[in-house]
Amino acid sequence: MATIRPGPLLKHPQGAESARLSAREPVNMQLLKFNALKSSASVIVQASEPDITAVVAVDGFKAIENVIVNKPGQYYYTLQPDDHLVLSCGLVVDVSVTGIKKTITLRSSMQIKNSCSIKMDLLFLKSKGGFQRMSTIDPDDTYSIPMEAAYEHLFYVLPSGKNMQPVEGSEGFAWFGCDAPDDFRHSIECSPADDDTISNFVNVTCREEQYKNQKQCPTEAFAHHIFQLHPPVVLQSLLPFRISVQLEAVGSTLYTLEPGTWAELYDVNLNREPMILFTFQDGLSGKLRLSKQNSEYSTFTVGKGDTTLEVNVYTERMGYEKFSVYCPYWMVNKTGLTLEYKIQLAAITKLGNHTEWSKSFPIISVGASDCISAKFKESTYQFGVEVHLSQFTLSKIVVLTPYYLIINHTEFNIKIQETDCSSIVGTSAPPGEVTHFWPACDSTMIHVAVDMGRGESTGYSCPFNYKKSDFLVLQLNEPAVALCVEVQETGSSNMITFSNYYPGCLPVLIINHFPDLALLYGQSAKSPRCQPWLLQPQQAVYYTWDDPTDFHYLIRWQLVDAVAKVSHPSVSKVDITKDVGQSFIIKQSPIKTASTSSGLGSWNPEGSIVSISTGTSNEEEDTDFSFGRNKQSGSKRKGYVRSFYIGLQRVLLFTDDCKVDERIKMEASYSLPILAASVTLKAVGLSLVDDTQKRELAYIALMESGVIWQVKKGKKENWKTLSTSINAELEEAYQSGKQEIQQKHLVANIADHNNMTMFEPSDGPLRRTHHEGFHFKFTMSNKDYTIHAKVGYLQVDNQLPFSVYPQLLYPLPPPPTVATSTEPKPLFEASVVLNRADQDNTQSTNTVKHLKYVHVLIQKMAINADLGFILALVDFFSFKSYDPSFEKEYVKNDVVTYEKTLQEALVTGSTEEFSRLFLDVFHIAPIKVTLSFNIRSVGRNNQQRKSVGDQFVQLFLHSVGIILTSVQEAEMKFSFFHLEYQPQSQKRLVSLFTKHYTTQALFQLHTLIFGLDALGSPITVVRGLAEGTFDLFYEPIKGSVLGPEEFLQGLGIGLKSFLGGTVGGLTGAGAKITGAVGDVFAKLSFDDKFIDKRQQDKTKSTKLGHKLGGFAMNLFEGVTGVVTQPVKGLQKEGAIGLLKGTGKGLVGLLVRPAGGLFDLTSGTLHLVTKKTKVGDIEIEEVRPPRFIGRDGAIRPFIGNKALGQAILVTTDDGKYVDTDFLVGHLDITEKKTKMLLVTDRHLMLVEPRIIKEGWDRLASVHFKHFRSAACVNASTVNLLLKEGATKRKIRDIPLPSRAIAEAACELINKGYAEYSGDLRERIH
Predict the structure, then answer these.
(1) Cα separation of 484 and 500, whole Å?
(2) How many Cα atoms sit within 13 Å of 1209 on the Cβ side?
């Protein structure tokens, strides 16, 4: 029983001063209204919300005041008994929120969580012997042990309802036997009441509960544990079919496992290494021996007769043994044929007779795709192969499909016939289905016909190439039908998709606007199929290509009289992929005999010959535009041809009406703005915070670029940015206060900063500005949408403590040879122009967009990552705790996905018939990336419970067969991606984009291999040598063109670049090789803390003094470790720990000094490399990591708090990070060489290290030694310590002034007050 008394802001509904609480009987409390708690969306107001408290009194113990009841979380308090003969107890106040209701639960600090799938009975051992049942715990339920029992009894558990009891003499579990919770493992054996049942076992693990009001549970706290119950063995099936498993013992249970499910085996004792019997489909069976010594990855054999198959087992140890049975490969056959294959070697088909074996194809690489062929007589069967990674990451799924697929999105049956195999029956593609297409001969051409129903069928279309990606509209006659066909070729498939006609799909609409002249037109190609067509005056026609296999973007045309029957001596061409316009002069010519070799070929239209000569729009003003039959020979008039878009349809117009031409020309060039909106931010920061771990992961900063200088050449011209070299000279003159610059290549007047002028190299106004951090502009006109986005400078900082790479992403400057001639550019810039007409296309269900202009520019950047940050990021975006049910869903999803037929995957449920893009210009500029990666995970807690993200990343690295190591500055170059005037489907555009960059990435894998530290990154050496040699000759030659002064300047740049490329390249290689050797010695120490600390010093310490200090420290720790390591081992693990510690100490005596020597050599060579490198930059963090207080609230960033937290993290190599919360810090010397650092437990005097990064603690006092608050005497802070304080504790802190002393005293007393408040909470 307990009594709760509401605080000042709470009240009992009946107005009582207090309420009695019985077990599991709730009592309602109401919150009083007051102004400070008005609802607000402001983070600051919520963060400053005062604590709402109550007084809690548990029977037999003293009351606890100021118990927080309004902030979610678990809070720990120590109960002091009324009777001194009774032990103290721990009380946990658990505050949870559901909607607008808060629930406050009072419980003990010892809990038992049932992580089994069956009910468990909890028993305790009575003082007089025998067991007494306490409770039954449901699956996934947590039971709080009553306080009077938590500290006195040994506890036992057994499966409920099985008539069992703990084995006599077995040992139970209790909090006082759990000194190291993370290492606690206990097994309880339960014997049956009869002999017909096998004994059961239950595993017990333990973890410490974390409380919101304390970083670590205080040493005086007693039980603060959560015991978890597990089955001894979990056997999971990650196979795509049903299996049966059973323990090889009399009376054991038979389990049937569906894909992804698991069985909890309680009758397994791993100490006896039992055998498990497996039964697979088709009668395959096998045995697996279970043992605690099973490796992480192992195999066993199943078979039937002479047929055997190896099955893999993945073993996990998470307080219990989990064995996951899986196959490394799933072979999925979607070809419709019977396949035989040799594992990892080849594949064949069986179609009545065996084909030959195909070539071998690799299936180890995830994402690989290929086309393989198997021959049978004269035929070749082609298959597509794709390798996917299963969602549970252990198996690779190899999908085999026909390489050629026909998808019919029309409502008619389509007949496909190969042109070179007319004697063989063709393929029929029913409407709405996916048809497998097996070419009968080695041909590239097919033609199609459409079955219209009722015995009516069109003739065959002209042939087209089905092996080349393209989009065509085929014309079929008798009756006339337009059929859309798209050929999309990928690495593993070639899909031929047919769809219905829709507005805008045809290549061109040709309009003959002439009143009296006919138009001859046709495809400009040499194919005999490209015959001319005649279009009469004042008529229009939709046109598609006569021969899709030839060039299809040029139209040949000629005007003729509509009456005479003559040939055509003159022909013109027009490119219909572009917006063009031209004028020409029409002259009446005498009648000639038809010629079969001129013009478009043998044309015999009726009408007189019209001679056409192209001209420009600025013809003489007196041109005669009239034309008629009675006109004399030699008269002339003007005609116009124009190519443009109407909506989504390309139009080719021929006219002699100048007003029509001018109107179309004006419509093309005139755009009426309707809406314009822009957003410009000088700088913006995005903080990524994991509130559950109370840490900031990364800080993304979009900031202004460096200073740039721009000149305006004319009144109507835009400002143009000057080159990097001129920018540097102008900025240097500006900062030095010069009023004018007089040089041969640069003349400017900068006396008046508001009215600066440049005379050379350009003449015009001059201004000093910068690229904004972020700029976005959206414009809408009557014709299109325009989007322009720009990022001036982007930097991503790694905010995790002890990270390998402090900066994850930042832009890199251009090489000196490029910087002298190019202007500074923003990191990212993109422009998009989208035609509005596609928004009005409501006549078809097809989604069609016209992208008139897309241009993306990305500057060179560096990307760094270490495994620790990647895992932290995956944890942040994934589930926080491991749950086997996820894997069940993953396997189920994989089975459902790959059991789908091609029909279901490609057609069924598709609501989008044909999604297309018309691209005028689509350009992504070349991209350069410098990549660094480190496999080491530094400063990350080794938690027993894994997140789903952890498992995914770790298993992915294993499954894809990658052995990673440290890679430094491997340069990846991607060429530009460019498309121009092409119709594309969205799917094909994505496919082209992906193929372009993945292909180039695969071609550059050698840069990663040769960028390994263990090899000295030879590719960096070769690249630096080549660039240095080029600069040595190029820079002086370029300077000599401008003058002798520039020649000397170019010679200096060239020499420095050559020196950096040769000497710097070789020393850089030596630094990486010696650093890699140092890594080997560090791993031989078998000390994870030492390895992490060394990695931190290696990446953050850049001064030679720091390297010397690191070597001295390694030497010291290697010698002293001979004594300290055995002592630590003895304290932790007893005699076994003593042996382990002795081994570590002896090994450390050898490897630590040797590793330190190699690190010193590597650091020295690295410093030489940096000094000789041209254009090297130092990147500093934008700001320190965010400070997050003990309550975990995410408040606005406070620079002073963040700086203090950074000092605390690096003081004594992070000794106080896990135990203390920062209160504040203060500079106590004028030169800022000494700091006063105050936490909720200590006050410390710290100073920056001389030979290493970080801060050293000069002196410290724990607040438990304080007798009362500190006070100020003149300029000295007096610390009032207890009499028992040791002599080494500081008592007085002399400071430079009284003002500093008062500020220091206030800060110290604030820390003491927080400590005293926590102490009262623990004592009360």
Answers:
(1) 6
(2) 20
Please give the structure tokens belonging to residue 1142: 């002795």
Rounded to the nearest 10°, the torsion over CA 104, 107, 113, 114 is -90
pLDDT tens per residue across span 771-802: 788 899 999 988 889 999 999 889 999 988 77
**Residue 791: count of CB within 10 angstroms of its CB:** 24
Nearest-angstrom CA–CA distance, 690 and 699: 12
Helix (H/G/I), strand (E/B), else coil: 728: helix
User: 3-state SS string over 120-142?
Assistant: EEEEEECCCCCEEEEEEECCCCE
Q: Which H or E element spans position 1106?
A: helix 1104-1172
Cβ–Cβ contacts within 10 Å for residue 1287, how many? Answer: 5
Average pLDDT over residues 74-78: 82
Q: Which pLDDT band, with edges at 50, 70 and 90, does 827 fall under?
A: confident
CB atoms within 10 A of CB 939: 20
**The model's pTM:** 0.71
Cis peptide before 479 (omega within 30 of 0): yes
Tell me the C-alpha distance between 1128 and 1144, whole Å. 11
Paired sense of beta strands 580-588 and 636-646, if any: antiparallel
Question: CA dist 692 to 212, 808, 876, 1220, 1239, Å?
Answer: 11, 23, 9, 18, 22
In 275-384, where does DSSP find H-type helix? none
3-state secondary structure 473-537: EEEECCCCEEEEEEEEECCCCEEEEEEECCCCCCCEEEEECCCCEEEEEEECCCCCCCCCEEECC
How do residues 990-1037 score in pLDDT, each as one tens digit? 878 887 887 777 667 655 655 454 444 555 555 556 665 656 555 555
What is the DSSP secondary structure assignment for residue 1060, as one 8-state letter? Answer: I
Under a CB-based contact definition with an 8 Å cutoff, are residues 383 and 353 in contact? Answer: no
For the stretch 200-241, pLDDT in tens is 899 999 888 877 666 555 544 556 788 999 999 999 999 999
What distance in Å separates the CA atoms of residue 176 and residue 609, rounded to the nearest whole number? 111
Which residue do the tokens 């080719």 mark? 652
- Percent with pLDDT over 70 in the chain: 72
Average pLDDT over residues 592-619: 34
The encoded tokens of residue 238 equal 């990650």
